[in-house]
Structure formats: C-alpha cells, structure tokens
Amino acid sequence: MKRIVTLISVLVLITWAVELRSGFGQRQLPNYSGGSSGTPPLVMKGGDPYIRALMRTIAASEANDSQPYTLLYGGQRIRDLSRHPEHCVTIVAGPNKGNCTTAAGRYQFINTTWHEKAMRYHPGPSGFWVWKNYSFEAQYQDEVVYAWLSDQQAWGMDISQKLQQGKLDEVLRKLSGTWTSLGYGIEDNVVTKKLPKIYQRLLQEELQGK
Over the stretch 156-183, which tens digit does the pLDDT of each residue have? Predict the structure, then answer.
C-alpha cells in the first residue's frame, strides 16, 4: 500500500512539474478585437459559419462584453485561464436571486457543466488519468462549445441544418434550457428580444469571413 501511495505522489509531482514548465497558470490574457455587431469575433479559427454566428449570438446575451472570455457573473474578471475559476458569485436578481453561480467566460459555463463538456469535447487536456486539467483559455472555450453545438446526438437535432433552413427560433428554444437568456428560458434580459437581428448581422460577418 505504501508503494502505491508513493507512486501516486510521484505521478502528481511529475504532472505538476510538467504543467509548471509549460507556463501553467502564467499565460498572458489575449486582447480581442471588437466585431461590428458589438460582440467580438471568436478566437477559434475556421468552422461552420452558422454555428460560429450562433456562438457569438449566445455570447451577446450571456456575456455581452468586449472581453467576454475573462468575464465572471456580475462583472468581475478572471486573471487565470488555466482552468475554470469555480468562483461562486451571489446572484442579485431574477428567479435565482440569493443563490450563487460559478458562471464564467464567454458562454458563462458553470463549473460542473464545463467539466462535463470539457471531458467530452476539449481537444487538448493536460495531465493524465484522474489528474487531467481542461484549460479555460479562450480558444478552448470556443472549441468546446463549437463541438458541443455540432454534436447532433447531444441536442437531438442538426443545429447547423436548422439554422441554414432559417429555423433560428427552434434552435434558440432548444438551447434555452442551457443558456436561459435566449428567449425561451427563465432569465430574459435587455438583449434577448434583439437576438434574431443580432444573429443575422453576425451570420453575415461570418459568411464574409470577418
């Protein structure tokens, strides 16, 4: 038993050393250029323009900010994107007032949802076995959401196809159980009613490669 404990301790130390050497927790926060429609372009490059426009539309309602990847609920900032911050902030309005939320980043992932989806969709976890870490850097926030929205099995529909057919309302209704400010959830905000027009503007940007 002592040998097993010692081996596990050594593995943990090796993992920590590798992360430290690669600059774990010390990366510079990127700057983001603003898009013409008020929500910055994705950091992730390439992909389906319909899904990309949808991602930016979600962010326009959930994290409407010039630096959305570093945003915590309530307006505070993340200084370390090496992992989800898991910082619980008290909710000050709406049906969940008085509770706290760990919502963070461009898509306001709560920590449990991030870990669940990152385990499935994150393209570059570090570490190994039970010590895997899923970086919360901007690129990975985008890539996890892109892969999730592109997964037909996860949503029971082909979201890109629905968008190409002009069925944005159907898509927003489906997603409102996850992102509750999209028009069919419990937390509409001042942006919610504008989302169809915002999506159309963003789609034109994405189709033009902006």
Answer: 999 999 999 999 999 999 999 999 999 9
Query: Which H helix or E strand runs over 100?
Result: strand 100-101
Domain count, the chain: 1
* Chain CA centroid to CA 97, Å: 23
The rounded distance, in Å, linking the Cα atoms of 78 and 35 is 22
In a domain? residue 14: no
Q: Would you say residue 110 lies in a domain?
A: yes
In a domain? residue 12 = no
CATH number of the domain within which 120 lies? 1.10.530.10
Q: What is the mean pLDDT of residues 118-125?
A: 94
**Identity at 27, one-letter amino acid code:** R
Hey, what long-range contacts does 65-69 have (CB within 8 A, 24 or more apart)?
Answer: 66/32, 66/34, 66/40, 67/32, 68/32, 68/39, 68/40, 68/105, 68/106, 69/30, 69/32, 69/43, 69/105, 69/106, 69/137, 69/138, 69/141
List C-alpha distances in Å: 186 to 25, 57, 66. 35, 18, 25
